[in-house]
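Team,

Forwarding the record for the chain on the shared tracking sheet. I've put the sequence and predicted structure together so nobody has to dig through attachments.
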Amino acid sequence: RGVFDNLRKFIVWTLPTNVGEGSIILVAILLGVVLPVVPVQLLWVNMATSIFLGLMLVFEPKEKDLMDRPPRDPKLPLLTFPLIMRTGLISLIMVLGGYWLYFYETGIGGESIAAARTAVVNVIVMVETAYLMSCRSLSHSVFYVGIFSNPLALVGAAAMIGAQLLFTYAPFMQHLFHTAPLDAGAWLRIAGVALLSFGAVELEKWIRF
């Protein structure tokens, strides 16, 4: 049960992240606007988040009520309707948040396209990081399972944030991935979208379960 549970958590985490990334590109193509992220930046996102975030769900300890649950119906699909809807919710927040950051930075913020794209990449990664915490339990709040019950998830999140700071500010990373420095205001907006995604999932779990 524990192995199946963690496998399911990883799938539930990785689906909206990939759908969200793909949708950002698809929307830009359909609308005929400048891409808010470039392919090499998405390559970085997929590589870094898989290592620092997704892998950490493998080490998630068994939930307290695991053996109290009734046997799982073998005909039940791996992804139930509520989890599919949750995938859509996170994908939508990622797409809307990404485009809001892009147009805000290039418009009101007066930033370059490179800086706006850097903000979009960071909002994608921060939403994935916040969502990882929610995926530590598919039905309970992360506070129920214990924030510190999987130290590797916290280490992975911290490492991911550190990698994003390098991605944003290190000159060699700026050269490789066409990024630009962000100011404190951009980081606050990025954090706001990430917190929104975390709060939305936690609220959905509280209402449904």
